[in-house]
Design brief:
197 residues, mainly beta, three-stranded antiparallel β-sheet
């Protein structure tokens, strides 16, 4: 069996990661020559699979794949930030360090989300897969203490514009790329492929 057919897999058994297969492939070097034909270096190609664990943030990414936007809330009555709601998802309260409770903010986002600020760019940190120009939006929600950054998948952003979340449920990546935003009133037929409300 070739190495490419024996791609690595990870399973969790009895609370431990079990890794099998190949996660690192080395390819032949190629010479790099300058205009005069002198050797100045070599390529050093690698194909590496990085295993990224979510830990306590896993419910957030699982929720996106199911069309849910999950945040967290401090439930410690002795904390100054008691009942503060956070999105992005925070496992622990930043004030009292107690574990936060998970709350479903999907309906809150569908009815109260609006663009706080925005930026339009030709570059992205999200694996350079978003269509250009990329319309990054910072989204605020009623009753939520923090602001969530995302991308506007349809239309042009404006400060104060009401937006609604859309989710990549057809083929989820289990990353933040499974969440995007569109202006309120956008038709389902205008959503990017694989996304739905």
């Amino acid at each position: 069996m070739s190495d490419l057919q024996n791609r690595g897999t990870v399973k969790v058994e009895n609370g431990r990661y079990r890794v099998s297969g190949h996660f690192h492939y080395i390819y032949p070097n190629d010479p790099i020559r300058n205009e005069a034909g002198d050797l100045v270096g070599v390529t050093n190609p690698r194909d590496v699979t990085h295993i990224h664990t979510y830990g306590g943030e896993a419910p957030f990414f699982e929720g996106l794949s199911q069309g849910k936007l999950l945040g967290t809330k401090c439930v410690n009555p002795a904390c100054e930030a008691h009942d503060s709601v956070y999105l992005p998802f925070r496992i622990h309260c930043m004030d009292c360090l107690e574990r936060n409770e998970i709350v479903d903010l999907t309906e809150t986002a569908k009815t109260t989300a609006k663009v706080h600020t925005f930026m339009i760019t030709e570059r992205t940190g999200a694996f350079n897969t978003l269509p250009k120009p990329i319309r990054f939006v910072n989204v605020e929600f009623a009753g939520v203490s923090t602001i969530l950054m995302g991308n506007l998948a349809v239309g042009d952003p404006a400060i104060g514009m009401q937006v609604v979340p859309i989710f990549q449920k057809a083929k989820p990546t289990y990353t933040i790329l499974d969440l995007a935003w569109v202006p309120a009133g956008t038709a389902a037929s205008d959503l990017p492929e694989g996304f739905s409300f």
